[in-house]
Amino acid sequence: MTWLDVPKDSAFGVANLPYGVFSHAGGEPRVGVRIGDRVLDLAAALGDPVFAAPALNGFLAQGRRRWTEVRARITALLTDERARPVVEPALVPLAEVRSHLPFTVGDYVDFYASEHHASNIGRMFRPGSEPLTPNWKHLPIGYHGRSGTIVVSGTPVPRPQGQRKAPDDPAPTFGPSRMLDIEAEVGFVVGVGSSLGRPVSVRGFCDHVFGVCLVNDWSARDLQSWEYVPLGPFLAKSFATSVSPWVVPLDALDRARVAPPARDPEPLPYLADADDWGLDLAMEVRLNGHPVSRPPYSTMYWTPAQMLAHMTVNGASIRTGDLYASGTVSGPERDQRGSLIELSWGGREPLTLPDGSTRAFLEDGDEVGVSATAPGPDGTLIGFGEVTGRIVPVDGAVRRTG
Ligand code: MN
User: Ligand 1 centroid to 143 CA: how many Å?
Assistant: First the structure.
């Protein structure tokens, strides 16, 4: 228990301690840990200059032993009341801080690890054929995304524009996307890199991956369906990807680990489940404040350890700050789907919001939030906070008509 006045049922108690980068009162961005509704300035509390930096990368590169040691030191400060004179001056109210992108993003990969999501998309995009492609249960499908447009929660998202052509249109047209969507996902942050030619095994996951955040992979479905054959997503995804401000360390997720769904068929040996790295995260998607979906992460077919093993099996190396995301998290039920294209079934069954308005896809001004919690020790909850973003119209000054 902490001596701080953090409620027992807080999802940001001492069992969590997620890391982020914040600035306060006009100061420079620096690393902090969230405790309750406050942020602990780590450079001030621990006297270590690695935390007086605008990104977590320096700390991430130090590796698992150091991550565990720092977590133990922070826990000691927050649970031993004798540390109060050191800790109290280093605490800042969360409401007074500005959150920044928590790490400088290296490479970015996005997977497609939900069987329910992949099946739903397959049914909509390829009616009459098998919903899953023949490779789907043999390897975690993914693509390399654009790391330079990863933004922290709260950053406005300009509506993308580009080419779109519905199957029956005679020719493509150009303009703002009319089918702007979300993808509620979970992201994995690489701490320690690897060497070229040396794949990371499934077992190497917790030596290389530091923690977990939430991701919204904004997607322009009309641009996507025209451009994606044969090389996959490109401009339909690269305009913006939002991440939550707090990275929950793997050390906080012991109680959240679950066995992934049964494998049929068994994957090749390099993808064999070594440890249970399914995660029991309860996610929620809100559109303009109204809950529209509750995707269960535990239903994901491929684990993050398998994703990492696959991503490096060809010898590709990883770097500190690399981010890979799970792909849209969708459960088996209708109200567990993590994208609007699934929730509205391709736009044919729009959602009705409490104000009476309907949505198949996002309108300008719409705000989307994705949040999650996981089970912690002794009945506590581990909070992931929220990743939010509001759609803003295409800037008239940059609008082109093709
Ligand atoms: Mn995605």
Answer: 9
